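Question: Now follow the chain.
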Amino acid sequence: MLQTIINQLLDSEITTLGSIFKMLLSLALGGAIGYERKRKGQIAGVRTFALISMGATLAMILSIYVPQEYLGLKNGDPARIAAQVITGIGFLGAGAIIQMKGSVRGLTTAAGIWMAAAIGMSVGVGMYVIAVVSTLLILATLILFERYERRINLVRETKFLRIVVSGGMPDVVPYKQLLKRHHIHLMDEFADVDYRQNTATLSFVILLRDQCDYREFLDEIAAINNTLSISLSNEQ
């Protein structure tokens, strides 16, 4: 009895039991990746990744079943629908990328969505071991590599530093020297002078380390000129 069930699960022909197993497996694998993304506060979570993975699996099942059932082709023609799945998943991936005035977020989640679809297709054609190993590798990439990057202080974020000073346009050299001392990469700079208020606004686009001491850094900036206000944000 058990051997019969295993044979049905591993059979290349589409069966009801085999299809149900494939859908459940893709649900579990996609949900595992989605759980990791949701844990990081991403919009796409368990339900999204599970649905993407199951949808890709179902597409592969249909692409094999229809030629097998109606055309008598044992292996079907899975390449046609698979190509459409890869193309269509790009729209979901693009939706996961949020652009915030120069700060692009969601690239890792978009890549995860693309991989979840590929895993679902792998399950759909019966490549169970490859699908499971791929899921484990994805989780290792998302979890272990992030820990490694943080450990060696490699994680950097794009920040927008805005400084308002009184007394007109100041010399920007001291600010650049301060950024250099703190090993902060300056990507771009802007200046806006208000002659009526006798103030100037300096805007710097910087690449900041994840473990930077914000308080010490901002205190040093405030001491350079007659600083009225300082803001450090993710948006311009």
Q: What stands out?
A: The longest helix spans residues 46-71. The beta strands are 98-100, 103-105, 156-166, 185-194, 199-209, 227-233.
